[in-house]
Amino acid sequence: MPEDPDELAVLDEIQQELILQEQLVIEEYERSLQFDEECLNAILDGLDASNKIICPVCRKNHLTVRSHSVFCPCGLDVPAQDMTEEKLRSLLENTITEHSHRCLHNPEFTVTSGMEEEASLLMTCLVCDFWMILL
Question: Which PANTHER family does the protein's record reference (predicted)?
């Protein structure tokens, strides 16, 4: 065991450097874990959002589906009897697919309502003159 004060100072300095290096490695590991957690949360948020249905009218917000109506913050509010997200997703996908077999252009979606009628979701295409009431 060294007892020379110079040797003890050198050993103490080496020990301090090792402790500092260990702390730096731990900090880097913690930053890496935090980054991994943020990435995982972003992926999970994306998966959760992918189950939502984007409003076909505004193409920005997610639709909210209740058993008797479908609505969006953009103003879309259409009555729909016994509607579920699965039924609505299937209806939109099937109608858009059916249109795409005849026409390469993207259809437009609007909400229409008459004086005494309830609001309806209408899909139209000005290019091929296609229209259909979805809800």
Answer: RPA-INTERACTING PROTEIN, RPA-INTERACTING PROTEIN RPAIN
